User: Fold this.
Amino acid sequence: MKLTISIVAAITAASLLIVFPVSPAIAYPAVKRQTEATKEQAAAAEPDPLPARRGLYEKLSLFTEIPWYWIAAVDQYERSMSKVKPKTRPMLGSTVGVFIDQERWAGLLNPNLEDSSPLSIRFFNGIGRDGDGNGHAERTSDVDLLYSLVSRIAAYGSTDDDFAIGLWEYYQNNRSVQRIQQFARIYAAFGKLDLFEHAFPVPVGTHYAYNSTWGTGRSWGGRRTHEGTDIFANHGLPVRSTCYGIVEVKGWNPYGGWRIGIRDLNNFYHYYAHLSGYDKSVNIGDVVKPGQVVGWVGSSGYGKPGTQGKFPPHLHYGVYSDRGLIEWSFDPYPMLRRWEQAERKRIRSGK
Ligand SMILES: [Zn+2]
Assistant:
């Protein structure tokens, strides 16, 4: 590296300017990966990671001029990918969800993949940066991870359009860009990170019935398995968003009839089908919150637009997990039971 010493000195001076100060005394609470079943008990025992994350996003935002909700959206998208691919995307930091592999971090031609020197990483065109100012670009540091990713994506500029270009360059995948744009809109609309509350899809206390029917066969449209839970209710009962999210799809589908699809911050797609109609105020790209009415129970579907009454009125509710390039349906029944119980409790306590 002797030949590059003068370059190195120049870069050192420059890189000191781009390092933003974060007190080493700030501890970011550890977030462990949990199974769905233990999540709630664990959530009660562990410190809330959101305030520390918010602080980190705001510091990075001040420094990079990228709005905090873009930074939050990138981090949350990365976290959602790590949750579905825990083996290939192990948690690197404590609270951020960002995963960057060694080659990308250190630079493809870097002979030392464990490299943490900001100067030689730059020399080999790696992504790794020293965000916390300790002189090392560490793949285990929350600040370094998020700062490295955000500055790479922000290389095209800090407007929404520039950022979208940066996202495309980094992920090379339109779905990733769309997800992060959706997440950013949700965060910007509500102005907070704590957006994981849920509601039951129809008003609790009204007449409805449902069973665990995920995976059973069904007849119309050839052999398909049932990817959801049917909630039987009278025509016209309100259908509500179960989550904070953004409307991704709305309109006719031969199977689902009038249906609406809502994306949440866990990167789950919530699918509500066979509606009799939509709430007028809800359109594609709109942000919704749990309990907000999006439409009404009906019996639309199984034919041309407008077909109705081929089966008893019910809400078909499905949830799909985005795994990057494909989406997997999973059984919403256990979640529905939990949300229903939680709502009953809320009603009883008068909240
Ligand atoms: Zn169904």
